[in-house]
């Protein structure tokens, strides 16, 4: 039923969709964590935590699913990237653990010092995580030192070059803005007014970071723009991205918070679509292009991809239904007086 030449392309798109879903969903609660310490009152911090409380752990499932899909569909990519980024991934895993523990442990004891310590752990981990993700993506875009045996030949310090760091900062700015917009949906009163100022400030932070990143991309990773330059119709994506971002402050001003969040979500989809288009058919470009890991030389067998696709077609609707149900149930604002929905 599925043509063997089409299956790797389908799984390239599916892995991209899963990772984009993670960026949208966990992106806003990482952004909330990065903004957490900007509130000074304990009750305001509790409101921020309760705003993401019902959904944060479910959002992380998208990352696990994306990693599992990558492992099954493109095992050589999984092996090369996870072994090459081993130190970085251990640091990322540590931040994920600290963040989860901070959310769960913060209110287990009433002491002020106890709560402040977990607030710092929650916020710091929420800041480091998007930077690490951006640095990892930046290195993949730039191209990794991979030999003919698909082995990563570099070390951890080689990952910390200017372009990946710029992308890491831009990812943090994007998630902070996305998180501030989400909080505008979930807060009310004076806290909602403060969140409105965060939206403006984080948007300015993102635009500056993104302009620097765009210039760096043309200078350091020009091949990412080649397909757009060759196909003028693809310019619709960056144009749509900017229009969606510019629509955010307008919707916030008119207190149409949900439309603002949809605009931010659409902008993230456009950004990651541009990344996918720029990289295709490479999954992990190598510094020597002949050694690049592509959808063709790293894909699993046709039978494996076919069985997995049937499982995905059956399972993904259930995941979407569950996710949608949770967001529908907790669609209101957090009641500051009682600290719950």
Topology summary:
Layout: H1 7-35, H2 42-52, H3 56-73, H4 75-84, H5 86-105, H6 112-142, H7 162-186, H8 189-220, H9 226-230, H10 236-253, H11 257-279, E1 282-284, E2 293-294, H12 302-329
Antiparallel strand pairs: 1-2
Helix pairs in contact: 1-3, 1-6, 1-7, 1-11, 3-4, 5-6, 6-7, 7-8, 7-11, 8-10, 10-11
Give a verbal description of the structure:
Helix 3 (56-73) crosses helix 4 (75-84). The N and C termini lie far apart (47 Å). This protein has helices at residues 7-35, 42-52, 56-73, 75-84, 86-105, 112-142, 162-186, 189-220, 226-230, 236-253, 257-279, 302-329; strands spanning 282-284, 293-294. Helices cover 73% and strands 1% of the residues. The protein has one domain. It is an all-alpha fold and 341 residues long. It has a two-stranded antiparallel ribbon with strand order 1-2.
């Amino acid at each position: 039923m599925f043509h063997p030449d089409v299956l790797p392309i389908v799984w390239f798109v599916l892995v991209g969709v899963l990772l984009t879903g993670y960026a949208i969903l966990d992106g806003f609660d990482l952004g909330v964590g990065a903004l957490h310490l900007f509130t000074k009152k304990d009750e305001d911090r509790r409101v921020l935590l309760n705003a993401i409380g019902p959904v944060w752990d479910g959002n992380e499932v998208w990352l696990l699913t994306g990693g599992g899909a990558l492992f099954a569909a493109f095992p050589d990519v999984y092996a090369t990237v996870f072994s090459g980024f081993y130190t970085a991934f251990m640091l990322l895993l540590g931040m994920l653990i600290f963040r989860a523990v901070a959310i769960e442990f913060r209110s287990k004891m009433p002491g002020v010092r106890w709560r402040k310590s977990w607030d710092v752990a929650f916020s710091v981990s929420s800041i480091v995580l998007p930077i690490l993700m951006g640095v990892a993506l930046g290195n993949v875009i730039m191209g990794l030192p991979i030999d003919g045996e698909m082995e990563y030949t570099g070390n951890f310090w080689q990952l910390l070059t200017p372009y990946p760091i710029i992308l890491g900062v831009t990812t943090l700015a994007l998630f902070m803005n996305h998180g501030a917009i989400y909080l505008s949906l979930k807060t009310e009163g004076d806290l909602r007014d403060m969140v409105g100022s965060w939206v403006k400030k984080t948007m300015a932070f993102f635009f500056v970071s993104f302009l620097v990143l765009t210039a760096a991309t043309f200078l350091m990773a020009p091949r990412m723009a080649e397909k757009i330059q060759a196909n003028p119709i693809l310019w619709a994506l960056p144009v749509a991205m900017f229009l969606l971002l510019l629509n955010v402050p307008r919707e916030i001003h008119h207190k149409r918070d949900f439309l603002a969040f949809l605009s931010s979500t659409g902008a993230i989809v456009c950004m990651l679509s541009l990344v996918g288009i720029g990289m295709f058919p490479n999954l992990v470009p190598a510094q020597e292009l002949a050694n690049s890991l592509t959808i063709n030389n790293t894909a699993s067998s046709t039978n494996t991809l076919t069985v997995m696709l049937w499982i995905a077609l059956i399972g993904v609707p259930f995941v979407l239904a569950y996710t949608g149900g949770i967001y529908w149930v907790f669609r209101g604002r957090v009641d500051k007086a009682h600290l719950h929905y």
